[in-house]
Amino acid sequence: MGGVSEHHGPGVRQDNALTTRVNQPGREEGIVRAGDHPIEEERPEDWGWHHRMRKAPQIAGWLSVLAMLSYLWGNHEARFEDLWLVGIAAGLVVLLLWDLRRKRTAWRP
């Protein structure tokens, strides 16, 4: 069968007059029935599947910072927990600001 995929099923034969071989760049050679056309690759961007989320991650990040800082008010007595909360919230703020700057100065095709 040299170069033709085994996945075309038993109903399609290479030596059948109703089928033709099709060279598909970047893929194995395919078999197409008479009257049909080969499958052409469609770019995922044409369907809108590969877009970046614009606002949702930023909104979720800032809400997370506010939620972490709201834990400072509570009935705990030790301040060690406060250091962790403020430290992690500060880290999130740094990452969110870096992400905003990166998006603003990113190269766009």
Automatic annotation (TrEMBL):
Membrane-crossing residue ranges in chain numbering: 59-76, 82-100
Composition skew (Basic and acidic residues), residue ranges: 26-37
Region of interest called Disordered, as start-end residue ranges on this chain: 1-37
Parts forming coiled coils: none
Keywords for this protein: Membrane, Transmembrane, Transmembrane helix
Name by which UniProt lists this protein: DUF2631 domain-containing protein
